[in-house]
Specification:
It is a single chain. Strand 7, helix 6 and strand 8 form a beta-alpha-beta unit. About 35% of the residues lie in helices and about 30% in strands. Helix 3 crosses helix 4. By secondary structure, it is α/β, with parallel strands linked by helices. The protein contains 7 helices and 8 strands. It has a single domain, classed as Rossmann fold, CATH 3.40.50.2020.
Length: about 170
């Protein structure tokens, strides 16, 4: 899918917002990329999954951190037939006490999916959890990179960083 088409889909579903926003990283921004708006729109979610599917060859599993990445990994799994796991921010204090829901990641090649990256904190946490569980991660695929340090932080961990879109491309359209 062309960059312009994906940007237009995000605009059409209301995923690109302007105003005053405090981001997960704590940073303040005058725009917000709300991929949850995109991932709750079936047409947009399907198109994102199709664009992401081009980057999945050779992977045993797809992984995403709760909450934002979950619809993306589900859609991508349905498109590619690659199983997925959901990474919890924290271990459950009850039941199975798992931090990774789904099958084992041990010795499996895992593609990490994220909706939006800013500083990269949640992606780094996802990578750490997968590594602690002996998953093999060499790539992070994100819908939108806000170009605020996540890419460099991830690359410094010897993991490829692949954004479908950068915020600079979105804002120039």
């Amino acid at each position: 899918m062309k960059t312009e088409q994906l940007i237009q889909l995000l605009k059409d579903c209301g995923a690109i917002k302007f105003g005053h926003f405090v981001l997960t990283s704590g940073a303040v921004s005058d725009y917000y990329i709300d991929i949850k708006n995109a991932s709750t729109d079936p047409n947009t979610l399907k198109k994102i999954a199709e664009a992401m599917a081009e980057h999945t060859e050779g992977y045993d599993l797809i992984a995403g951190m709760e909450l934002g990445a979950v619809p993306l990994v589900v859609a991508l799994s349905l498109k590619t037939k690659i199983p997925y796991v959901i990474v919890r921010k924290d271990k459950r204090g009850h039941g199975t006490n798992k931090q990774i829901e789904g099958g084992s990641v041990k010795n499996k090649k895992v593609l990490v999916i994220e909706d939006v990256t800013t500083s990269g904190g949640s992606v780094v946490k996802t990578l750490q959890i997968l590594h602690e569980n002996h998953g093999k991660v060499d790539k992070v695929l994100v819908v939108v990179d806000r170009e605020s340090g996540a890419g460099e932080k991830i690359k410094n961990l010897n993991v490829e960083f692949v954004p479908l879109l950068s915020v600079s491309k979105i804002l120039e359209k």
